[in-house]
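request received
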Amino acid sequence: GEDVEQSLFLSVREGDSSVINCTYTDSSSTYLYWYKQEPGAGLQLLTYIFSNMDMKQDQRLTVLLNKKDKHLSLRIADTQTGDSAIYFCAESILGSGTYKYIFGTGTRLKVLA
Amino acid sequence: GAGVSQSPSNKVTEKGKDVELRCDPISGHTALYWYRQSLGQGLEFLIYFQGNSAPDKSGLPSDRFSAERTGGSVSTLTIQRTQQEDSAVYLCASSLNQEHGYTFGSGTRLTVV
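response:
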């Protein structure tokens, strides 16, 4: 089946690194994504990784993909209070000839000053 | 426009009334998606449109929900005979291709009283 799981909450101190984890079940995923949702706003694409990569770095963000374990993580270095938000991981899978996106439940990151 | 536009941003309606939610995707994006986000919950897939293909309606929770996309652009999500459990934020997103993921609108917050 298609399922994406995340822990619901994460709390870190300002300046520390945050690591948000995600597991997925469908091995046919082609791309995996991280989205950020700030209070009262829609979702914003943060970064993505192609399924044949195991790491991608973009400024303070590092995405690690372990395809064997179907595990995706997002590391935010030097976490700031502005990083407080809900973070969703998502995978794109091929179904019925077109791509469909499956989202996790989101991880609420709280950054303590 | 530059982003995905949804209207109205907020809607309060009485139980039993019909509502229409509108989504204007990014010009040229062939894929359009509707999701629902209930308070404290993750994203629930509702329906998606890809070009001229038949829409994937597998996520619609009941036959009170329907959606159409006219001319491959604007989409309307209609909820008939609204119930209190329909209260949620309804998010629309459009996509050009897999690599770029989705671009989300800011959502319509529906409250059924």
